[in-house]
Structures are given as C-alpha cells and as structure tokens.
Design a protein that fits this description.
- The protein is an alpha/beta fold.
- It folds into two domains: 6-214, Formyl transferase, N-terminal domain (Rossmann fold, 3-Layer(aba) Sandwich), CATH 3.40.50; 219-331, Methionyl-tRNA Fmet Formyltransferase, Chain A, domain 2.
- It is built from eight helices and 18 strands.
- The chain has helices at 14-25, 51-58, 76-88, 105-108, 131-137, 173-198, 230-239, 309-315; strands spanning 6-11, 29-34, 39-41, 46-48, 63-64, 93-97, 115-119, 127-128, 142-149, 159-166, 213-214, 246-250, 253-262, 277-281, 284-288, 293-300, 307-308, 324-325.
- A hairpin with a 2-residue loop joins strand 12 and strand 13.
- It is elongated.
- 40% of the residues are buried.
C-alpha cells in the first residue's frame, strides 16, 4: 500500500530502528533520516553506525548525522547545514524516537504537521532518558508507549495516543525494550495512517499530576547495596540488564550479578550481615539483604561470561559465610 504522507525520521538505537522499519514497510515515503554520528564501540572501539543508520542505508534512504541542531550550540555550522537540509527536503511530518539530540523550536516548526515522538512510558510518568529502566527499577505494575506531539520541553507535549503493557516479574530492560519497541512501531504507523486520512491528530494535554523523571542510567549505579531489601535489589538487577548490570565485590573480585529473585521462604537469622552468602546450590546463591534474601541465578566473574549459577559455581566455588561488599561500580 502506498501513502502520500512523507515522513522525516529521527532516531538512533534499536528502539527507533523498529519504528523506522514499520513506517517504511507500511509504504510511507521516508525522504530523510536523522541519526546520531557514528560512535566508537566494541573491543576495537571502531566507529559504528547506529541501528537506524544501518536500516536506512540497507533500504536506500538518505541519512544525515549532524552533531547538533542548535545554531547557538557547539556546532553552529553543522546545525545550520542540517536545518537547511530539513527545509529543502519536502515532507509532511517528522517522527522522533530515541534520537538523543535536543530539537530546538526552530526544528519543531519546520514540518507542516510538526514532530511526533514515540516515548517509552505512559506520560507524564517517566519523562526523560531512561523510562524503561526506571519503570522496572521502581516496581511499576505496567508501562507502555505514548505517542506525543513534541514541544520545546522535555517530553512535555500533548498526547496523541497510548498503548499499555504489564511489567512481568521476570521482565528485564532487554525484554521490555523489545516489547515496547514493537508496540511503538505499531502505534506510530496507526497515527500516521490517521494523520493522512484526517489531516490532523487529536491531542490531549498531559495530566499535571504524576510527573516523574527518568534520569539517564550511570555506570556507577551497578553497585548493589545489600542493605536494601531483596525486592528492591531484584528489581535493580532486572532494570540494569543489559546495562550496566548489577555489581558487587567478593573477596576482592568484582562480580556481575545478572539475574536474581527474592528468595521467598528463606529464614534470615538476625545476625546475618547484609551481603552474607547464606546458601550455595546449583539453583542459585542466596544472599542476606537488609530485608529478606536474594537468590542470584546468573553471575559473571571478571573477564568471564554471564553464566547460570550451576556453571558459574563449577568455575568459581562460593561458600556460605562469604560476604559481598559494596563495590566502586564506576570501575566496573
């Protein structure tokens, strides 16, 4: 099916690439894609194209990678060139998903139908950089995707539509990300189809109550503090998979803890110190917490791979009584 609506797309990671693929496959013309400049990645730190750039190149879509879109920023010439390119590229609407650059008002004013953002939470909860991680970490029962008309604020624009999904007790940021990426792709195609049909999209202002901010995830947050409750720690571990993982030090070795659950029914004696290993078995390593105990089921030693507890223990035996200590996770 072919569409007359022309869509400039701005996005960078896999979450955005899923939406770009859906828009392109639905038959909308995409005359231009904006994505972040290539970044060094992997062991060799070679420059790598973003998932969005890779998709665009594979499908013959023009790509621009300005380091900034702000005339008053650090890259005024590159920003001016990108703004000229946007103005010179005939289009009807711009779709933005996890792009990673601030869009100044000047950019928001260029597309005839403005800029539509695919945001990974139910606004106004979790505005900002890391909505998927923060929803799991906070123990939210559900999250979703909000399609939003962008304004100059941080995720403050009026809402077009939303779709919700429960957060399962086994969800990690990786699993929830993939589910939300698929939902976002579907929701934006429905929105564009409606915009083409009706010439406009209905918008509702965000509620003033319930605003929270999802700060960017810092590497130092990997540090697991066993003085916290087992429930909170289990959520932290799930929220930080795949990045930055949970980290704790055991006898001088920095271990990554990748999968954990509250160990229900384990009796933690009053003299067990937080971080103390209570039980070691192929089913997992049970660790005393400030409240309850945590069963760690997937671990990684320095220079090793993520392994289920059974395989990990074969290479690095642990014993009850050993104690995890808080790590300087900035070094992780």
């Amino acid at each position: 099916m072919s569409h007359s609506l022309r869509v400039i797309f701005a996005g960078t990671p896999e979450f955005a690439a899923a939406a770009l693929a859906a828009i392109h496959e639905a038959g909308f013309a995409v005359p231009l894609v904006l994505t972040q400049p290539d970044r060094p990645a992997g062991r060799g730190m070679k420059l790598q194209a973003s998932p969005v750039k890779r998709y665009a190149q594979e499908h013959g879509i023009a790509v621009a990678q300005p380091p900034s879109l702000r005339r008053a920023g650090k890259y005024p010439e590159e920003a001016a060139a990108a703004l000229d390119l946007l103005r010179a590229t005939p289009h009807d609407v711009m779709v933005v998903a996890a792009y990673g650059l601030i869009l100044p008002q000047e950019v928001l004013d260029i597309p005839p139908h403005g800029c539509i953002n695919i945001h990974g939470s139910i606004l106004p909860r979790w505005r900002g950089a890391a909505p998927i991680h923060r929803a799991i970490e906070a123990g939210d029962a559900e999250t979703g995707i909000t399609l939003m008309q962008m304004d100059a604020g941080l995720d403050t624009g009026p809402m077009i539509s939303e779709v919700r999904t429960p957060i399962a007790s086994t969800d990690t940021t990786a699993t929830l990300h993939d589910r939300l990426a698929a939902l976002g792709a579907q929701l934006v195609v429905e929105g564009l189809t409606q915009l083409e049909r009706d010439g406009a999209l209905p918008v509702t202002p965000q509620p003033a109550d319930g605003v929270t901010y999802a700060e960017k995830i810092g590497k130092q947050e990997a540090a697991l503090d066993f003085r916290r409750s087992a429930v909170a720690l289990a959520r932290q571990v799930r929220a930080f998979d795949p990045f930055p993982g949970g980290a704790a030090t055991l006898d001088g070795a920095l271990l990554k803890l990748w999968s954990a659950e509250p160990a229900d029914g384990v009796n933690v004696s009053a003299d067990a110190a937080p971080g103390q290993i209570l039980d070691v078995s192929p089913a997992g390593v049970v660790v005393a917490c400030g409240e309850g105990a945590l069963r760690v089921t997937q671990l990684q030693k320095p220079g090793g791979k993520r392994l289920p507890a059974r395989e990990f223990l074969a290479g690095m035996p642990l014993t009850a009584g050993q104690r995890f200590t808080l790590t300087d996770a900035g070094a992780a």
